[in-house]
Amino acid sequence: MDNEWKLERLESFHGRRGPLVLAIMDGVGIGKGGEGDAVALARTPTLDSLRESGLMCTLQAHGTAVGMPSDNDMGNSEVGHNALGAGQVYAQGARLVNEAIASGRIFDSDTWRWLVEPCVQQDRALHLVGLLSDGNVHSHIDHLFALIDAADRAGVRRLYVHPLLDGRDVPQTSAHLYIQQLEDHLARYDGRSGRRYRVASGGGRMKVTMDRYFADWSIVKRGWDAHVHGVGRAFSSAMEALETYRAEQPGILDQDLPEFVVVEQGRPVGRIEDGDAVVLFNFRGDRAIEITMAFEDPAFDRFDRGRVPEVRYAGMMQYDGDLKLPTRFLVAPPAISHTMGEYLARNQIQQYACSETQKFGHVTYFWNGNRSGMFDERYETYHEVPSDKVPFDQRPWMKAAEITDQVIERIRKGEDRFIRLNFANGDMVGHTGKLDAAVLAVAAVDLCLARLKEAVETAGGILVVTADHGNADEMFMIKKGVLERDATGRPKPKTSHTLNPVPFIIHDPAFDGEYGVASLPDRPGLGNVAATCLNLLGYRAPDRFLPSLIRVR
Questions:
Q1: What is the CA radius of gyration of the chain?
Q2: Strand partners, 20
Q3: From 417's CA, which of 112, 310, 457, 546 has a CA 20 to 30 Å away?
């Protein structure tokens, strides 16, 4: 083995006879209490006990601590698992795109010139598809506006936007604000110098286009049909579609809105045709891969695409570096290397990863630095538990019990030294904005932690509990410390992630003072977890990793 990869043993601590089990409670942060804190409201005797008896600290899981542009930016599951698995902090999607736009290099790239060439020289249309909000998790409306402005400067005469409505990383019924901003921005150009800059089609992100992990291809098909074929319910504008759906289904969330197609004189305003150019302006990969496959895979068979237009297609970023999806992109993703998973594989240390479909890619692809597949199949085992295909608030327990079953079976087999798992409940149910369901979701995770704790104790291992970001810890909107209420006096639901810290707890039944919580000069974040896990396995962390959260005596 190359010395670059060799893990050195700690002199005074060699780990335990059982495995190190890292349980990631997705979306379970440390809130401020109160009536909207589902984590505080839930019955969590196991988590409470672990906090009292284990070694504990809190971690930053948002902002610059996970590579986001500023500390006003919430974390998310993608960047959180990148940081957890990499042991380092890399500039992430939003920051990379901001820098590329600010420097102008995004519009001086070969890909941008390739995209606009047919639009300028042959009067083909440029289509911009993506999430319309300033949530800064999958996309940002400012990035869309920058693309529109640059298209005008380049001489693009026909431009169509296919907005996917958010209500998940931003207030749940705020789509009208973003649609109005978009319409106002397009109006600067539409009709001037032969320009035709219009909204063409769209829908809610959880119903249209933005599926992930191959969970429900019907979502992608609805988007394909609307964007490419102009097939969907017809409206004169995106705003009319939004207002009509809201009137017909009172209480519907933006993320759940059906697809719509903007028509004029009975014809779609801007369906995607042969010779056009298409940009998916999302920077985050998980919900961009499937629609990218539909455009780029010549052997695609997930659904009947019907007419498949020959287009020039590019992503804001490359969403999967191993699969090369897409082949063309505007901004290069962070080059994440030397992750914890690769170190373990190269040192022939057996590892196991498990989650349900909704978060399976997070404990594999994102954990491994945006890398598909395994580093070495001899030393890695991955297990995916299929997620339910129902609204998560209807089954807030999700697949936590089944994940726990699988992990306990692996613990009992005694083959793995490191086990990582993700409980998706706090995040996926938190995104629904349903407080009662989120309380049940957190309680379900706690029940599973109790089972894991017992299994780890029996095996003589160590259990580490943390989270990738907050969500269920703040289910109501808060402004300047005050709960926001609607006209009826009810709290306004919050469906986005939070800026709250997350817990980091070590439960080591055999602990005899061999190590303690380290005093670090900077507030620790998720990037400090990998070095800590290596220490708990009995190894020194590589110098490139952020400092460990423990100090071995």
A1: 24
A2: 418, 462
A3: 546
Note whether 222 and 361 are same-domain residues: no
Beta carbons of 133 and 173 less than 8 angstroms apart: no
Same domain, 287 and 346: no
Q: Which residues span the domain enclosing 227?
A: 94-331
Report the domain count for the chain: 2
Strands 125-132 and 158-165: parallel
The answer to whether the Cα torsion of 93, 77, 23, 413 is positive or negative is negative
Residues 357 and 270 in one domain: no
The candidate with the shortest Cα–Cα distance to 225, out of 243, 202, 204, is: 202
Return the SS3 of 343: helix
> Rounded to 5, what percent of the chain is helix, strand, coil?
35, 20, 45
d(CA 138, CA 135): 7
Which candidate in 12, 53, 70, 77 is catalytic? Answer: 77
Compute how many other C-beta atoms are within 10 angstroms of the C-beta atom of residue 145. Answer: 16
Whether 77 is a known active-site residue: answer yes
Does residue 545 fall inside a structural domain? yes
pLDDT band at 372 (very low <50, low <70, confident <90, very high): confident
pLDDT tens, position by position, 187-235: 999 999 999 999 999 999 999 999 987 889 999 999 999 999 999 999 9
Strand-pairing partners, residue 198, are: 160
Q: Are the C-beta atoms of 31 and 474 separated by less than 8 Å?
A: yes
As a whole number of angstroms, the distance between CA 404 and CA 402 comes to 5
Same domain, 71 and 98: no
364, 382 contact by CB (below 8 A): yes
Is residue 494 a part of any domain in this protein? Answer: no
CATH at 39: 3.40.720.10
Displacement of CA 308 from its chain's centroid (Å): 29
Cα–Cα distance, 179 to 142 (Å, whole number): 13
| Cβ count near 478 (within 10 Å) | 17
Examine the fold and report which residue of 289, 304, 331 is the final residue of a domain before the chain moves on.
Answer: 331
Beta strands in 79-181 (DSSP E): 125-132, 158-165
- Decide which of 314, 331, 348 is a domain's last residue: 331
344, amino acid identity: L
Q: Kindly state whether residue 118 falls inside one of the protein's structural domains.
A: yes
Whole-angstrom distance, CA of residue 34 vs CA of residue 323: 45
Per-residue DSSP letter, 386: P
Please, how many CA atoms are within 13 Å of residue 470, restricted to the half-sphere of its CB? 28
**Helix (H) or strand (E) segment spanning residue 25:** strand 20-25
pLDDT of residue 329: 97
pTM metric for this prediction:
0.80
What type of residue sits at position 258? Answer: P
One domain for residues 123 and 158: yes
Give the per-residue pLDDT at 73: 82
Distance (Å, whole) CA 431 – CA 254:
12
User: What does the block give as tokens for 249?
Assistant: 């289904």
Q: Are strands 260-264 and 233-235 parallel, antiparallel or unpaired?
A: parallel
User: 465: which strand partners?
Assistant: 23, 505
d(CA 280, CA 399) in angstroms, rounded, equals: 31
Domain with 254 in it: what CATH number? 3.40.1450.10
